[in-house]
Amino acid sequence: MLSNRYQKQRNNLVEVLREKGIKDDQVLAAIRSIPRHTFVDSALWTRAYEDIALPIGLDQTISQPYTVARQTELLQLRQGMKVLEIGTGSGYQCAVLCEMGAKVYSIERHQPLHERSREHLRELGYRPMLKCDDGTVGWSAYAPYDGIVVTAGAPVVPESLKEQLNIGGRLVIPVGDSSTQHMHVITRVSKELFKEDVLDGFKFVPLIGREGWR
Ligand code: SAM
Q1: What's domain 2-202's superfamily in CATH?
Q2: Residue 117 falls in the annotated catalytic set
Q3: CA of 86 to the centre of ligand 1 (A)
Q4: Most buried residue, 95, 101, 156, 204, by CB count within 10 Å?
């Protein structure tokens, strides 16, 4: 059951995101309904509907709502699509994807975050497939995916993730150095051909793993 608490603040956040250029009504509807405050420590609840990233422990963050909205919008989701998320973190982005009707697979490298998000997503009634592992190599057992979203900053685009994209599928991934990254959208046009667009600048925590930062 999703809570009505902070509903006014969620409505205001949606207006802020709209003003910042988010157009996808399904993304905005998901953000309007998901209690973001429950994904952070109760000491931070009053700040949960500001458009800012917040700490979730282990030097990690729940991404800024604008970033979540923008990455989700770039996936161009439709009901029933199969989506792989790298970096479950708090589980918030995963909840947004589930709320939009995607079949979600999500990987987190930190065991405590993996366990906490699994429990919380279950409490909210979402049923994604989750695992604790290095997501830079994807999750080949369930590939191919219609969308892959990476919620940590990568030095390069991991080849394994490109290989696990369905034809027509999109990989949304921030790529750059440790201080700033640009959002890359890679579309698989055919088995061999990929189209790559480089969009706006962001600042993410690092993607650490075999095909990420060492
Ligand atoms: N989607 C998350 C949310 O809604 O809270 C964002 C979390 S944070 C910005 C990025 C997450 O990526 C962190 O929890 C971090 O531990 C995780 N991460 C970094 N490298 C990873 C890897 N190779 N595989 C899986 N998770 C990774």
Answers
A1: Vaccinia Virus protein VP39 (3.40.50.150)
A2: no
A3: 6
A4: 95
